[in-house]
Amino acid sequence: MEKAERLRDARNLLLKLHKNLVDHERAIWEGINGPATSGEFLNLLIEDKDFSWLRKFSTLIVDIDEMFAQKDGYPADAVELHLDKLRQLISMDDEDEDFKAKYQAALQQDLDAAARQGDLRSILTRED
């Protein structure tokens, strides 16, 4: 599989994983605080520090999308750089203990998120 194709596939899985994680966090938040409108919850995702750990996923998705959208194409090393960032993210090679704790807890509590993580790990560790 070509690396750019692998990155596209991984990006799509990352987006699905991000959705699972957001839905999981929303269920927890609404269980404590009551229902929120879509707009209210979006505001929480963007501004509330309790949701900041999810921004690592959304930021990487946007970075990958911007790389693929470049009019002049993209260098091969940019593909490898983003694949490495994805590997680091899902392996929790981050010094941010809050991120690691929340990500691990979500994976333990949400089987769909854990399955997506496993699928993503498989794509990223597969040999060419």
Helix/strand order, N-terminal first: HHHHHH
Low-confidence regions? none
Mass-distribution shape: globular
End-to-end distance:
6 Å
The count of strands amounts to 0
Protein model, in words:
The protein has 128 residues and is mainly alpha-helical. The chain has one domain (3-125). Helices cover 77% and strands 0% of the residues. It is built from six helices and no strands. Helix 1 packs parallel to helix 4 (76-90). The longest helix has 31 residues, at 3-33. The N and C termini lie close together (6 Å). The model has no long low-confidence stretch (mean pLDDT 94).
List keywords for this structure.
128 residues, mainly alpha, 0% strand, globular
Q: How are the SSEs ordered, and which strands pair?
A:
Layout: H1 3-33, H2 38-47, H3 55-68, H4 76-90, H5 97-109, H6 111-125
Helix pairs in contact: 1-3, 1-4, 1-6, 3-4, 4-6, 5-6
